Every structure is written in structure tokens, then in C-alpha cells.
Amino acid sequence: MTEFQGIRFFTTSWTLGISAALVAVTAAVCFLAWKRSGYSAGQGMLEALRLAIVGLVAVLLNQPEWVQEYRPKDKPTIAVLHDASRSMDTQDVVRKAADGGAAEPQTRRESIAELTTSEFWKPLAERFNVEIAAFSEASSGAGTNYAEPLATALERFSSLRSIVLIGDGDYNAGPAPSSAAQSLRLAGVPVLSVAAGSETRLPDVELTSLDCPTVGVAGKPVRVPFTLQSSLATERVVVVDFKTSDGEVLRKEVRLPAMGTATDWLYWTPKAAGDYTVTLTVPKQQGELLSDNNTRTAPIAVRQERLKVLVVDSVPRYEYRYLRNALSRDPGVEVSCLLFQPGLSKRGGGNKDYIQKFPSGLDELSKYDVVFLGDVGVAPDQLSQEDCRLLKGLVEYQASGLVFLPGWRGEQVSLVGTPLDELCPVVIDTVRGEGSHTDGPRKLVLTEAGRKSLLTKLADVAAENLAVWDGLPGGQWYGPVLRAKAGSEVLAVHEDVSNEYGRIPLLVTRTYGAGKVLYMATDGAWRWRKGVEDKFHYRFWGQVVRWMAYRRNMAKGERMSFSFGPEQPELGQSVALDARVAQASGEPLSRGEVLARITAPSGAVETVRFAPPAGEGAWGVFAATFTPREPGMHQVRVSCKETGDTLEPPPIFVQGSTAEGIGRAARPEVLAEIAQVTKGRVVPPGEIASIIESLSKLPEPPPSLRRMQLWSHPAAALSIIGLLGLFWVLRKRQGMV
């Protein structure tokens, strides 16, 4: 209803003074002009009009506005917003019992239950409408978002007068709540915050991650990393149990520091192909109050493999011969070999695994999972620029692996400036293109990263592995390497040779696009057979091939393959999907419609449409992204309209958000900041009853004002222009113009 309307002026001492002076001077001038005319009636009307125009300008200088006040007919609203997320089930609220002692701890949800009932707010019913609403329900799985309910409160509740915000402050989704509170402050809506929960985390051991790969190979070890987090006051040695769905059990002891985190891993060798579910469990520790976060489960698909490997070299040097033997004797590898034999007029035929020329097109090259590039370069009788471009695309888009194995001929120096130079993990020394020799055998020394890598794992125990590498025979030659490029990972360095950049890197890896690259700057790996035959040499190269081809073979059909990353995504984390599709001829599909039908654990179905990278569709790589909204197993079915092929890869297992867990400390400082920003107050847990009194003392909401600025209104400008025109016409009639 409208209670007031009228004109209001917004004046200053300057505008009042100028207006008064302007009117006074104009009045004096008008009187003198009228007097000189002998007090003519026409002149008097003209001067009166002049004075009226100046008077109107003087009024407008003081910014007059037509103001109307409106007071709402409905009652103002009090919004009671309470946190309903999973963290509110933490049992850490201790209140005194009736006899003065400590009562049984309550959950945070139980401690605020009284405030979520309409009965508690009845004393305010006469003056206010009280609306109770929950936010961030545990069933939604989307985390705790304090900003969203605050940001939408003004639109959601009519005539909002105040907000009572109840929760533990432990938000893990959305922007900072204080940013949303700014709009409430501008609207004059204070927030009364009620914090629930202890600021100290409960004694707990939590299994925060289980990063099991989604695909494994029968008979080959699978590395399963995991992370434990402790809020116990003392250091513990915990025994982690690893169980598979076929009944196999592994155990490992982990030293868990007090109030700290431990990351470790174990190795499991699946005996047969099939779909498995693995479970990692930490037994409940003495003094631990929560045990529902001590277990994680993940799926893994184990397959019999058949990897296709291409080995390219110039001459049959020792490194090439023993590498070829190692790969050809591996039952999981199908090897093809190519020797350029520069300088010979005719090449030999070789065995059945030899090919006569480098693969000439995408359809031939894209079938290889890993390519070994030996002592070869760009030359008329070796690689061409087009071959280098195809190899680069094979790694970047087809997720294949590429291994650089330089030799004493120095042919790889000619790769500098080609497309392969971009993905090479080291900077090649073009001055010493043929490498360098030493006066005696020199070993490879593992770096910290090399000690943890699966590539360099030649023994199952870390101490034994270091002893094995220390005992391996060294080489007397190393390749033309200046330093590792940024983003590369150095696994091993030269025993004693260094330059201005440090030790010479001899074993370097990097990820490029969807694939992996390895540079091995020594041709002495064949010497590792000394005294032990094939034990370490075969194991090393077998691990290299499988590590580099892993992502490409996550899910592979006859003409379609599928991969995703990260392998064990968290809830709400974006997942990158890649589908590689080939035509019936084997040539990669350049354009087409590729879809993935993803079924969540609840049965909800989402269709994701893939798109080829701009300008790179010839590689048959189709990319998409998917954001899971539920934890658990997500079934995937990939299809291509043009080829008619379908593929059902292993499911994507989404881990529940570790951010929204039970047992974490409350964050009352978040609620206090919201109250401070909105000019509200924090209500201590022991003073909950005072909320009613605080709200009942709220003043009536200020009236809403509707203003019309007369001083800048178009009608004011038109009035002045019209009066000035009339003044000019009258002056002409008086003969003054």
C-alpha cells in the first residue's frame, strides 16, 4: 500500500546558494528592464517569463524527485536454511547432561533437529512467515554448497527479512559463501548463523583413494596405489587387506604418521582373464571412532593381450638384435621389424616378422601400439618428413607409444626440426650427433622418480630393485643429449658424466597428447643379460611395451577403441573420453557420428556426443567429456553410425567424493564470516533459545521507495526548451530582435 507521496529535493549548500543568487540577479535585471519600458504590460509579461524560466532552472539544480513509499501488505519472511549433507551425520556434538556430566555425543544433524521444526518458530508466527528449507541433501551426491541457497534466497522467499543459517560450515562445492552474502547485505537481510560440530576432527583413519587401473593383463603385475589419511594422535603401523572377487588376498604393512597422510602401493598379478572387483580395507584402529570410510572398491578388466610393435633401425646392431629377440619371444607381442640398411644396394629378406618398407599410410601405421625408432633419421633411404608427421600423429591422437633408441651412427640428429622433434623428451646435442664414448663401462643411476616407476621395476621389493640396478652391467657409449625438456620425467642418469645442466639423462619419459614417449640414450641394455640371461632384459622391455600401450588398449574392438582419463575419477570430476574409429578398410574414420551411452548406477542414462579435433579428423580420434553425478559403476556403450560398430568397454568406476565425508572438523569460521558480512550475528550452541528474541527485535522492514527523477526527466527538458521558444517569440513581437 502507498503511504506517502510528494516531491523531495536533494540539495547542497552550493546548489542552494547558486539557485538563490541566480534568481535574485535575474529578478533585479527583469525589474530594471520593465522599469526602462515605462512599466509596459507586454514587457512585464516578457520579464515575468524570463524570471519563470530561471526559476525553473534553479529548481532543477536542486534535483527534485517525485517519491512514493510503499509498505508491503504481507508479513515479512524469516528463512531457516539448514545443512542436510552427509557431513552432518558426524557424531561430535557433546552437551552436558542434566546431572552436570557429559552426555552421549550427538550427531550434528541431531543437535540442530529442534531448529528444523515449525514448533520452535511459533513465537514468531504473529509477525513473520517462517519458511524452513534444507540444502545440499546427502542423496543428491553433489557436495555441500552454501553459496547457492544464499544467492537465491532473495528470489526464492518474498519479503525476506532475515535468514537463519544452520550447519557445520564444511562446504566443498560452489564459490565461497561470503561472495553470495554480499547481495544480502545490500538488501539489508542479516544472517544469524548457528554452527554445529566440533572444530577438532574425530580420531579416524580414512582410505581417501584407491587408484586401481581399469584394465590389466593376465599374468602381468598390476600396480595399485592407495592413500591413507589419519587424524589419530599417534603413529600407527596398519595392515592393509587387498581382496579380489575370486578370493585372492594380499596384505601390506603401511606406516601411518600421526595426523598425516601415507601414500603406498601394492602389486597384484591376475592369473586369468575376466572382470574382477578389488576391495582395499583398513581394519578399525584402536581409538578410531569412524570406520565407514575404511574401505574402497574398484573394478578391473583383465585380458589376454596381443600388442603390435614396430621396430625400425638402420643396421642390425646388438641393441636391435636382442630387442627383437626379446619382443618376438613375448607371447603377448606381435612384432614387425624394418632395417633400412643404408649404403646397401639390396636388402635381405629376413624372417616372417620383417617388413620391406615403412608403413605408407594411416591405415597401415595406426595398427601399431608401440614403435621403436632406432638409429635412423630423415634421409632419402630412411624416413621422410611425411613419415615423421604420421608418427607424431600416431602418438598424439592414436595413444600409441614411441621409443627413441639412438645409436653411434648419429642418424637421429636429422630428426631435429622435424615433427618428431616436438615430442622428443630431450634436447638433442647436434654438435655431438654421434654420441660420446667413455673409457670404461658406466651404469644407469635411478632418480627418485625412477625408483617409483613401473618401467624400472626389475624386482618386487624396492631395496632389491635398487640392488639389481646397481649390479647391472654398464655401457661405454651414451647418446647426444643436452638435457631433458620441461614436462619430461627423468628416470635414470649417467653414473658420472654431467654438463652445465647436471647429470646426463639416459632414461627419460613424457606424455604427449594421448600417447607416451621414451628416450633411452644408451645402447647397452643388451649387456644386462650377462650372467642372468634374459631375466632383466626381457622384463624391462616387456614393461616398456605394456606401459606405453596401456591407454590405447583400455578397451579395444576390431575397428574401435575407447579410453578415458582419469582412470578412477571422483564424483563431479570431468572425465575425458577418447574413441578411435576405423573404417572397414582399416583406414581411420575422418568424419562421422560417434555416441556414448552412459548408464549411471541409479539407471539414469546420458548420451554423450563425440567430436573430432578441429583439423585432425583424419586420425579417427573422436573426443568428448563427461561429468559423473553419481558415485559407483557407470556402464558405457560406444557406437558409430557410419561403420555400424559398437563397443562395450569396461565400466567407468566413479569414486564417492572424499570431500563430503563423515568425521571432518566443522568450520564455524565460514558461518561467522557470513554473519559478519551481512551484519548479522553468530548464535553459540548454548544460546539457541536467544534466536527467537533476536528475531522478534528486528525492526519493521524499511518501505520500498519508487522515485521519479524530475530534474532529469525528458518533460523538464522539453518544458525549458518550450519556454525559451516562447520567450524568443515574445521578444520578436516587442521588436527587441
Describe this structure in words.
By secondary structure, the protein is an alpha+beta fold. The protein has five domains: 2-71 and 706-733; 79-197 and 665-696, Rossmann fold; 205-299, Immunoglobulins (Immunoglobulin-like), CATH 2.60.40.10; 307-553, Rossmann fold, CATH 3.40.50; 555-654, Immunoglobulins (Immunoglobulin-like, Sandwich). Helix content is 23%, strand content 32%. Strands 18-17-19-20-28-27-26-23 form an eight-stranded mixed β-sheet. The chain is elongated. The model has no long low-confidence stretch (mean pLDDT 84).
**Largest sheet, described in full?**
8 strands, mixed
What is the CA-atom radius of gyration, in angstroms? 39 Å
What is the H level of CATH, i.e. the homologous superfamily of the largest domain? Class I glutamine amidotransferase (GATase) domain
Mean pLDDT: 84
Helix-strand category: alpha+beta
| The CATH C-level class name of the largest domain | Alpha Beta
Helix content bin: 10-25%
CATH topology descriptor of the largest domain: Rossmann fold
The number of helical elements comes to: 16
Tell me the span between the first and last alpha carbons. 54 Å
Short description:
The chain is built from 16 helices and 39 strands. The protein is of the alpha+beta class.
